[in-house]
Write a structure and sequence with these properties.
Strand content: 15-25%
Pfam family, one: GMC_oxred_N
Strand order of the largest sheet: 1-9-10-11-8-14
Order of helices and strands: HEHHEEEEHEHEEHEHHEHEEEHHHEEH
Radius of gyration: 24 Å
Protein name: Alcohol oxidase
Shape: globular
CATH superfamily of the largest domain: Glucose Oxidase, domain 3
Number of helices: 13
CATH topology of the largest domain: Glucose Oxidase, domain 3
GO molecular function, one term: flavin adenine dinucleotide binding
Largest sheet: 6 strands, antiparallel
Family: Belongs to the GMC oxidoreductase family.
Oligomer: single chain
InterPro entries: FAD/NAD-bd_sf, GMC_OxRdtase, GMC_OxRdtase_N, GMC_OxRtase_C
Structural class: alpha+beta
Number of strands: 15
CATH class of the largest domain: Alpha Beta
């Protein structure tokens, strides 16, 4: 990691870790294919393969996450902070003045004892319920599309049809290959004795597989394209004159990124265990590792999809889950981009040194034989795509006239004393996993809020 990107004073631990066999082979396989790393992967600009650092405490080998990094014992002792757990927020309390100004005055919630309570805001309400629940709460409170709110008997205090729209999500398509004899994968932990030994090793000294994050990644532009192929796809699928102005503005930017030869279009991730979306849709089925053999999986992701989904309330009852519609692969260009990255997964698996780690004539869970044509890759893309839990964009920080819900200070348009601080404010999905970006949004939000009170 470049020194300029290294911050030893951060709240979260990020560590480099030992590279098991598959992780060690990962970057060398890309190098064999002439895709060498072009820079520091943490810079946000590099192409190529690398072994992911992990958010793991360097000494205890426990996971380092926001819950322990930011809410530590010192923070918990603050007299002006109280954390209420097992509480369901029903709505933000809004008040409309005689001059038509809407103000947030507090929050209504139900505690674990079933009693309804209200908390009144001294300065403002900060909503950080995530890209799915934040727009849901805004709508329950009277901020959203007026017709939708009125249908559910909710007074529309702020009419903003952008709330809950612009939903973006990465979808990943996994291929899984049976590994060669003698190779160790995550399936080993199905053995109770091995699982117990791994837990004991971790509890004793942080050693063993439970103290690792055995994931590797790579960012790449579309591989193996024919001359003019990308341009033909863009001309075919992006010359739609009926796209809304806010969508058109995003598509222009996304097109420029696709046309940039230095900007990767996809992410590949190595996971040393089987992934079975055909046993979904729940994660319990997808990651259950029920096939008897041992496998390694490689997944392909389109970095910046064109598809846009939505999330909206389904009832005025806060206990009713909202309607969540990610619209994965709804845009035909996403299918074409994803299928080309998926097709190349077989090339990775057939290249040394990765190829020697796979069982000759071993099982493929994604298809009985090597995927050799683009049409099969398209079909597998549609059949096997899995949501990545990278939802963003539903309360976007944009000008309101092109899809915005919050301004550049995170303030909700049309409502005073109400801000949003979560992944929903990210207007365009970043390439790769969003975890670090969400932490950065929160850190920046803290600075913005503190500056506003000086």
């Amino acid at each position: 990691m470049a020194d300029a990107l290294l911050n030893l004073a951060g709240a979260l631990w990020v560590v480099h870790q030992p590279s098991p066999t598959f992780n060690s082979a990962w970057p060398r396989t890309f190098e064999t294919l002439s895709h060498c790393i072009t820079g520091d992967p943490m810079s946000g600009r590099a192409n190529g393969a690398f072994v992911n650092p992990g958010t793991i405490h360097a000494i205890s080998r426990a996971r380092s996450h926001a819950g322990v990094a930011y809410y530590n014992p010192e923070i918990a002792r603050r007299p002006n902070l109280r954390v209420v757990t097992e509480a369901l927020v029903e709505k933000i309390l809004l008040e409309k003045t005689e001059h038509g100004q809407v103000n947030a005055t507090g929050v209504q919630f139900v505690g674990r004892d079933g009693r309804r309570r209200t908390v009144h805001a001294g300065a403002e309400v900060i909503l950080a319920a995530g890209a799915i629940k934040t727009p849901h709460l805004l709508e329950l409170s009277g901020i959203g599309t007026a017709n939708l709110l009125q249908t559910h008997g909710i007074e529309a205090l702020v009419d903003n049809p952008n709330v809950g729209e612009n939903l973006q999500e990465h979808g990943f398509v996994p291929f899984s290959w049976e590994v060669a004899e003698g190779q160790t994968t995550g399936e080993a932990l199905r053995n109770p004795e091995i699982a117990q030994a791994a837990m004991q090793a971790w509890q004793a000294s942080g050693a063993g597989p439970l103290g690792l994050c055995p994931i590797s990644s790579a960012f790449l532009t579309l591989p193996e394209l024919r001359d003019g192929e990308l341009q033909a796809l863009l001309d075919r699928y992006l010359d739609n004159k009926e796209v809304s102005p806010n969508r058109a503005a995003q598509y222009r930017l996304l097109r420029r990124l696709l046309e940039d030869p230095e900007e990767p279009t996809g992410q590949y991730t190595l996971a040393p265990f089987q992934i079975t979306p055909e046993k979904g849709p729940s994660p319990k089925g997808i990651f259950a590792m029920t096939e008897p053999e041992c496998f390694v999986s490689i997944v392909a992701v389109v970095n910046r999809p064109f598809s846009r989904g939505s999330v909206h309330l389904a009832s005025a009852d806060a206990t009713t889950l909202p309607t969540f519609d990610p619209q994965l692969l709804a845009h035909p260009l996403d299918v074409e981009l994803q299928a080309r990255h998926v097709h190349w997964l077989e090339t990775l698996a057939a290249t040394e040194p990765m190829a020697s780690l796979l069982k000759p004539d071993g099982r493929r869970l994604h298809h009985p034989e090597r995927v050799g044509d683009l049409e099969t890759a398209r079909r597998l893309t549609r059949d096997r795509i899995v949501a990545h839990y990278h939802v963003v964009g539903t309360t976007a920080m944009l000008p309101q006239e092109i899809g915005g819900v919050v301004d550049d200070k995170l303030r909700v348009y049309g409502c005073r004393k109400l801000r949003v601080v979560d992944a929903g404010v990210i207007p365009l999905i970043p390439r790769g996993n969003i975890q670090a970006t969400v932490f950065a949004v929160a850190e920046k939000a803290a600075d913005i809020i503190k500056e506003s009170r000086q």
